[in-house]
Amino acid sequence: VVDPVMVSTSGCALMQPDAMDTLISVLLPMGDIITPNIPEAEKLCGFEIKNVDDMKKAAEVIGRNLSGSVLIKGGHLTETADDLLYHDGEFMWYRGERVNNPNTHGTGCTLSSAIASNLALGYDMKTSVQNAKNYITGALKDGLDLGEGSGPLNHCFNL
Length: 159
Known about the structure:
Layout: H1 17-30, E1 33-34, H2 38-45, H3 52-63, E2 69-72, E3 83-87, E4 90-94, H4 107-120, H5 125-141
Parallel strand pairs: 1-2
Antiparallel strand pairs: 2-3, 3-4
Helix pairs in contact: 2-3, 4-5
């Protein structure tokens, strides 16, 4: 599972251009699945993603250079938090409600880790993504509020 942490939620670049080239040419092709957010997917596909149709087009463009799957995370959508999986040439939507919680720090990394954990447990790709999506939604709904600014979600909500 490769989470291309290239662009922060606030839109700041997190990677130098030469590192981005290495990410695209070396690391992403090694992944069974990559999990870009919408700003990262825009960098990878080369065009702006404004809606769900653009997400589908971007997933196809990004997927052309990969042997694995592409999960474009929809947390930057305004109405929903729907994620799009492009797997074996097929699209699968993972519908998600937008949870009103300002504490979203680390959600992308947590989602990728949860997918990896489910794959390690032997679940197939589609089930792993669904289980991870359910986990993230529960962790956000818990409403943990620590510190200043955008705090972390509650990784232990279900214990």
